[in-house]
Each structure stands twice: as C-alpha cells, then as structure tokens.
Amino acid sequence: MSQTPAVLDYFTEYQASVADPDAFWLAQSKRVAWYKEPTQGSSLDKEGLYRWFADGELNTAYLALDAQIDAGRGEQLALIYDSPVTGSVNRFTYLELRDATARVAGVLRGLGVGKGDRVVIYMPMVPETVMAMLACARLGAVHSVVFGGFAAHELAVRIDDAEPTVVISASCGIEVNRVIEYKPILDAALSEAHHKPAATLILQRPQAVAQMQIGRDLDWDEALSMAEPTEPVPVKATDPLYVLYTSGTTGKPKGVVRDNGGHAVAMHYSMEVVYGMTPGEVFWAASDVGWVVGHSYIVYAPLIFGCTTVLYEGKPVKTPDAGAFWRVVADHKVAALFTAPTAFRAVRKEDPEAALMAQYDTSSLQKLFLAGERLDPPTYDWLVEKTGLPVLDHWWQTETGWAIACNPVGIEQMPVKAGSATLPTPGFQVEILDVYGDPSGANQQGAVAIRLPMPPGCLPTIWRDSDRFISGYLAQYPGYYLSGDGGYRDEEGYLFVMGRLDDVINVAGHRLSTGEMEEIVAAHPAVAECAVFGVQDELKGELPLAMVVLKDGFVGDEDALKAELVAAVRQQIGALACFNQSLIVERLPKTRSGKILRKTLRQMVNGEALQVPSTIDDPAILEEIHQRLTDG
Ligand code: COA
Ligand code: AMP
Fold first, then answer.
1. Position 251 pLDDT exceeds 80
2. Does residue 24 sit in the same domain as residue 74?
3. Counting atoms of ligand 1 from 1, which one is nearest the CA of 338?
4. Rounded CA gap, 450 and 428, in Å?
C-alpha cells in the first residue's frame, strides 16, 4: 500500500476525477493491497456494462484484517460491540477479529462454501454477523445479509433469489426489551422457499434457545470449536463480494451486486475524502448491518481504512434514554458519528434541549454525518445548535454503496446549505435531467442522474438480472444511470435531493416499496383495489397509507378489516414497514387509461398544492376523497 497522494482542493480533485477517470482511479487503486495490481480502469463486460479494474485480483477480508495487521495494527481495536439491550460491551483487536473470522471461514468451507457460492446472513447486530460477512469475503463467497426486521416471506424471497449454500442466523434479536425469536422466522422462510440450503449455522444467544433441526441446523459455537482457520482466497476485482436486496417498485426486491475491487478502492477513498478520517480513529455508523450503510460503514470501509468501528445493538432512544448516542460517543471516544436524520428526530423529541448530552464527555466527536433520507432543515438546525459540530448531509443509495454527493471534508470543507447534500463527490458526474433527458438549468427540478461510467464501488448489475438493471436504471436516458430521486442544483452547483420519483418510500431511513404493500393489501378477499403511498410524518419522515376500495357487497366490520390488512403487511414484510393506516373510499382517481393517480392522492393527504393531470377520468372522485379525509 502506498502513501496518500496529496489532495489539493475540491474543484481540482473533482476535475481530475472526471477529466481522466481511469487514471484517477488507477492511482487510488494503488492505496489498497492486491495480489495482482490492476492495469485497467473501467471497461465494458460481455453484457456491455461497466466494470472496474477487470484484470486486478485481491481479497476484501485480507484488506480489512490481515493487511491492517501487516501494517502494525494487530493490537489496535478493530471492532467495539456495544449492546445496551444485553448490557454488554466486547472489544476485538484486528488480530482477534482476523482469527475469529478465519475460523468462521473454516466452518463455512467445511460446509461446502467456496468461491462464488452464496451465504444468506439473517442476524441481529452482534459481532458474529461481522465475522460471518468477512468470512464469506475471505473465501471469495458472496454474502447476502437480510435485515433482521424482515418477516419470513421477505427472507424466503431472498433465499430463492440468492440460492445460498448456507444460511447463518441466530436464536434471536432484541428490540429494546422485547426478544424477537429469529429461528421460527427462519424455519418458516425455509419451508416457504423453493431453494433448500445444505445447512444452517445458528448462533444460540442466552436470551432465547432455538430449536435445532438435526441434520440441517448446526450450532455456531460447536462448529467453531472444531474449525480450522482458513487463509484468504484471491478473487477477481469484478467478482461479487455481496448481494444486498433493496426495494424497487414491484414486490420483487432487487439484488444489488457489489464487486470486490471497485468497492475496496471506493471504501478506502471515501473514508478519507467524504468522512475526513485518519486511520486509528473511532468511526461509528449507527445503522444496521442489514442496510447498505451497515455494509459500507460499519463493516468494510472503517476496517479497510484501519479505523476502529462501533457495532451498536440499541436504539437512539429507550435504550435506556435519549442520551444513548452521547453515552456511546463518550465511552468509546468516537470521532465521527453517522446516522439517519430520523434517529436524531427521535432524540430531539425526547430531549429537546439535549440536556442528556451534558452528562457525557463528547469532546472526542468532531463531525456528524447524516444520510438515508433528506436531512430536514429543522433537524439540521437543532444539531448545529446543540452540538456546535459540523453537521454534514450526504446523499447516496444502496446501488451506489457510497456518497454520490457530500461535503468533501477530507479535502476541503465547503460552506453548508441546509437541505442540500452539498456537491458531487469526486468521480460522480451528477446531472439534473428534464423529461426529454436534457440537462436542466440551475434551480430547475428534474430527475437526478449520474453520467456513465459511475465511479468504482457502484453496482455493476442486478444479481442474475442484467435486463432489470438496464431497463430500470440505464435505458431511459442513454449514457446515464437514473437514481430514482428528483431534485435540483442551485447556481453554485449545490445538490438538493427532494425525494423519490417512483413508488418507493422512506420510513425511518428504511426504503420500502409501496407497490409491494399494494400487492398484499389487494390480495385480501374483501379488497377490490387500493393505492398505497407515503404520507409525511414528523418522526419517521414518511409513513405508508392505503386507500382501499372494497368489493361490492362487503358486509363485515371495517375496523376488523383494517386490522387484518395491518396484520397481513406485518406478516409478509415485517413490522418495520410501519403500515398502520388505511382509509376506505368509494372510488380511486384514475387517468382515462386507468392509472391510479397516487401522486395526486399523496399531495392531497399531505396538504400540498394539487397537480391534477389533464388526463384525469373523473375529477369528482378527488372531491369525494377530500370530503372523506375532512370527515376523518
Ligand atoms: N428486528 C425486528 N423488528 C424490528 C427490527 C429488527 N431489527 N427493527 C425494527 N423492528 C420493528 C420494531 O420493533 C417496531 O415494531 P412494532 O411496530 O411492533 O413496535 C417496527 O419494526 C418499527 O420499528 P422502528 O422503525 O425502529 O420504529 P420505532 O418507533 O421502534 O423507533 C426510531 C423509531 C426513529 C428510533 C427508529 O426507527 C430508528 O432508530 N431509526 C433509525 C433508522 C436507521 O438507522 N436507518 C438506517 C439507514 S442509515
Ligand atoms: P437506500 O438505498 O435504502 O439507502 O435509500 C436510498 C434513498 O434514500 C435515496 O434514493 C434517497 O431517496 C434517500 N436518501 C438517502 N440519503 C439521502 C439524503 N442525504 N438526502 C435525501 N434523500 C436521501
């Protein structure tokens, strides 16, 4: 690994990244260790999709662990596990984490997992989850982590798409003070899924004992006690490191593929440029390993960069109170904290004066990073006022894996404009496109797109479905990747991302498909048709609302029906969907071609100015619904 190339100022760096992207990223690639250094920057694969560093070979777990030990960090803390829900704190040095990971890799190899095989990980926020992910990477296997809040059906869908050799899970997760048993969910998912993995590996936690199925389920501790450590396996830069499913506009989630080489280079670069970190410092992403933030900034980037990462099994509030974040910062000398705005809205609601912050020594904290949803100006202002720290919004998505726009503090801290994610990150050529696909002028709203090729780290494709990648992201405006978000850039180029243009909503920083909820609601025998869309919520940003038309002749109790709809969504997607509201209406507004006017409904419920398309079939329906809403 070579020394940091000198970075000058943001605009010089940005220009270098777009003037000659291959030269720029090949220079960055020299900062991580390869078995075979790449000589190629970007290239097109057989399907005509961009790939990075096609002739390079490396191992991501080696970079995250062994290379750090080789660089003298063996005794430095790699991972701090802080779990207020179990009352425990565990610390792992790089040596300890490497050795544990190598043994988990040994277990997986013994179960037949090799290069390219998939492993589904359905786990709570425990260190074993990090070890499992890194163990897959060590073997060149492909992990697919499923967020622990998803219900059995969602897990089954992912198991069928990923076709794992092994599924790793635990007996339970803990939600504040509720023990959520995972094993019955896993069992239900495995019986629903068509694909049957060869084995499961189950971590028994003291809070719940999982019933094991002999011949299929293996005990984590027992398996590890017999395992031999395994060495890292070299893989191609373009080989997949993981598949992470994210919500699209249909019920079928999209398997976002992350490669090894581009990802490693992007993670390393981002720790320095986006987060302004120095190796050895403590970085805390208060998210969940089931989301992309957890993949990139709890696990891979901090370790690849030689930082100490914090794995927090708790909530911003109630574990035990709204001082939890400040307590963790103080206990572990956190230098930078990254979370979703909704987490701080929850803290502000319970502790508006931030009185609990004063109880802790938070002097180690230098910067706050926010992403996952729009950072609303009131939350921004509150954070600035209460912490006095730089509060830095940045915009990205599961697909890109790292920030598309940020305040590049590692190069040059730009003035903040509340509500803006600041400027495009070096490597990302962001354009606002109008309906014809032409770049829009300053302050004109449009579709936020990224000119191809995107920089390293971004998805090369959708798992086993390149057609979906092309039709969903690339086909609409040739030469661009369409983010799905709408927004504008001001006269200084600052980017304001205003929200999704498709049927995806953002609930407490979790990305959910309203189309999927519609499928579940519409499947109820009493429902003729429905529309699900997001309504504004002070705490969670958005919450789903269903407008439901009942079949003629329905005679049951409407409240009981609504409760059944809530139960169906909880059972099939999970409680995290926060689906609790439905409104029964006579008719839904549609265009003359029969398309439901969800956007108009959303505007009406949110009290926004109505944009009614001229193609509306019967405008009287809007008045009926407005009346229904007014009546409560
Ligand atoms: N396993 C099982 N259930 C889970 C879960 C998990 N990992 N995560 C959430 N749930 C459940 C909750 O228990 C809750 O269930 P309930 O309806 O039965 O009470 C439901 O899903 C909704 O949970 P949540 O969105 O966490 O709501 P909350 O009211 O408990 O907490 C916040 C509100 C703001 C504190 C919380 O949403 C939060 O911490 N958000 C930050 C999100 C985040 O980090 N996003 C990552 C993107 S960076
Ligand atoms: P996810 O893929 O779950 O990370 O969700 C990505 C989506 O969250 C984006 O497409 C945006 O709609 C939204 N998002 C993430 N970060 C921001 C941000 N800083 N500002 C506005 N929206 C954001």
1. no
2. yes
3. 48
4. 6
